[in-house]
Design brief:
GO molecular function: transferase activity
CATH superfamily: DsrEFH-like
Strand order of the largest sheet: 4-3-2-1-5
CATH architecture: 3-Layer(aba) Sandwich
Helix content: 25-40%
Number of domains: 1
GO cellular component, one term: cytoplasm
Number of helices: 4
Shape: globular
Pfam families: DsrH (PF04077)
Largest sheet: 5 strands, parallel
Order of helices and strands: EHEHEHEHE
Strand content: 15-25%
Organism: Litorilituus sediminis
Protein name: Sulfurtransferase complex subunit TusB
Length: about 100
């Protein structure tokens, strides 16, 4: 059962990112929104991506752009419509905030 994990806060400021990464599965999808966009460069994410190479990681394009965050090639930039589609495609949604 795949879960859409939405992370709203920076892992540099809070522990929600680490809590999420502790339970995430390779079949899940991870999306960063708001200040969670800063997590695209977080060492804990990079470690998880090396352990779970099939994990899909995405970031809201306009949230990253508003914060002048460069999006790594390993992370897909998505729109609001893409996020809505993910909520319908996956079995459950969990927001970390």
């Amino acid at each position: 059962m795949a879960i859409l994990h939405i992370v709203r806060n920076s892992g540099f400021q809070s522990n929600e990112l680490q809590q999420c990464l502790d339970i995430i599965c390779e079949s899940d999808v991870l999306v960063f929104i708001d200040d969670g966009s800063y997590n695209v460069n977080h060492p804990a994410l990079m470690n998880t991506q090396s352990q779970l190479p099939g994990l899909e990681v995405k970031v809201m394009a306009h949230h990253a752009s508003a914060r002048a965050i460069a999006i790594p090639n390993s992370i897909e930039a998505i729109s609001n419509n893409d996020l809505v589609q993910l909520t319908f495609q996956l079995d459950r949604t969990m927001t970390w905030q």
